[in-house]
Amino acid sequence: MQGITKGTVLGNRYELTSEISDAPGLARWLARDEKLGREVAITVFGSKSSHAAAALDSARRAAGVEDDRLVRVLDAGSDDDHSFVVEEAHTGAHSLADLVRFEAMHPEEARRIVGETASALEAARQRGLHHLTLSPRHVLRLADGSIAVTQVAVGGALAGRDDISSAEATKRDAAACVKLLYTALTGEWPGKAEEITGLKGLTVAERRADGQIATPSEVVDGIPSDLDTMCRQSLNYDETPRTPGEVARQLAPWSAQMITAPGKGRRSDDAASDEDEKDHNFTVRRAADRTEGEGRRGVGAVGAAALAAAGTTGAAKGARRLSNADDDTDPGARAEGPRAALPRKPAPRAANEQDPADATMIGRPVQFDADETTQFSLDDEDAAYHRTTYDPSFEELEPPVPGFHGGTDDPDAGSSKLALGIVALFVIGALVLAVLGIRGIGGNADTPAASNSGSASSGAASSGASPSGSASRAGTPVKVQSASVVNQRGMRVNDSSSMAQAVDGDTSTAWKSLLYRNRPWGGYPGYGGLALNLGTSTDVKSIKITPGEGQPLTADVYVGDAPGTAGKKVGSVSNATSQQTISSTAKGSYVTIFITTQSLAPGTSYYQSAVSEVSVEK
Fold first, then answer.
1. SS3 labels along 534-551
2. Which parts pass through the membrane (predicted)?
3. Are residues 52 and 113 in the same domain?
4. Which DSSP letter does residue 471 get?
5. Who's near 438: CB < 8 A, 6+ residues apart?
6. Which of 360, 384, 408 lies at the terminal end of a domain, its last residue?
7. Residue 104 and residue 40 share a domain
8. Which residues contact 42 (CB under 8 A, 6 or more apart)?
9. What is the pLDDT of residues 460-509, one digit of tens each?
10. Most CB within 10 Å of its CB: which of 239, 506, 557, 618?
């Protein structure tokens, strides 16, 4: 940029201190806000540019979107020769391009980062804003692990793409999210070379002779099947999710914790040194464990929770004031700054090497679901799991009301009328039941209340649940062969790593799920149940369940020959805080305790489930 040097003051307020990047007609600098005494990031471009007015308008509209994952626009304005957009700066942040410069990212961290990015873009889309220039330089991971997306709407306006239709812009942003996922998994950009101009160490993925790009699983070990399928379908067959919101839903749920593991590269030989083997460890860090004063709120969301927040937060608060608003956010530093030495680039895979991986529905090894800060060996992961292919029986969730469109599209007029009609029927039915109930009050006043020795008190629900201590004939204990967490269809999911603590006979230990921002299970009510494998078909007489301390349990209990909810429902518990006993006359080889809602984990704002002990008698 002509006339822009260190010490230049823009808007009689922002003194340029350090250049971040420079391109024809555009420059990014760090600057000091002399009015508020803070550091900011500022994008400078010619005020006479044909796109200047559109860029300034986009910046002002982007300032009205309240989402922690979008870098805040603080000010926008013009001098005689230059226009500028001022954003918050971030200390210790690294762009996605920096994070994958030397080694591909761990698949679960890639899932988390791209899921948060897609959720942020969905929040912007619902306010009529799009990115249109999304690349690894625009996604930042902050020091506490939270994600920030820069230059929403502004970058597209400066590139002259603000006249693209909303449908096309939405599709481009969704496709860019999938490209980011591929880059995070492999360290290569699957798009055009000009899109990553100036990003050191990032190469363009080459197409094979058949015109297709190698899938992530062909480049790096341990890629979950759902991530591999998303990249293959989008990049090679142009079957991209329609919106960033759909990208987020397909990636969900992701970890609420930052995974600080490096990506796992393929090994081309068996002569790895002991030192190399020692490097095959990773650490999971809880978001809530970061120190106070690190700035942004907790890391990540789990699944649809982040997406749900994206659609409501911005509309509720309205536009933020720009230059005249005092701001006390923590100042930051150059996002593109140098970083510490990282591990080497993953070696290419040997031709005869077998993929490790996962037997879980969504493709994540269960070690990543630990509830505490823990260290694991990736070699143990290889021995424990074999690779599974994409599950063709998996279907997207049905729309909540028949006739509604899928995705995040607004319902049409016919669908709205149908929804109102259904609601009206429910209201009429409730009124009828209320009238009948009022007429029946006092009708059987002289009839003694029926006793129910199997009913629960203070936290136990109907259908055979009773507090421990109810009179019942003792049965023979059944040894549980194994235990895991499954979904409604009985397919194993995450949260299984500590399941052994729920069947070890010790009530002082407990299985605990991951932390979720929304309940249940991050907004997926059909997601989680505790499945106990009894080994053989057994006449189950009773099931005793002890909830985790301080965490009420609400669940339905099933007995059948398969895990999940396909068996016979034998009872339920509701807000139980003490040991409950479920009586049963059913026969099966599995007992499933399907958790229908979750409670706040003690001392946090996240939802969680916990079970101290489960025992079965025949």
1. EEEEEECCEEEEEECCCC
2. 418-438
3. no
4. -
5. none
6. 384
7. no
8. 10, 14, 16, 28, 29, 30, 31, 84, 85, 86, 87
9. 444 445 444 444 456 889 988 888 888 888 887 766 667 788 888 888 88
10. 557
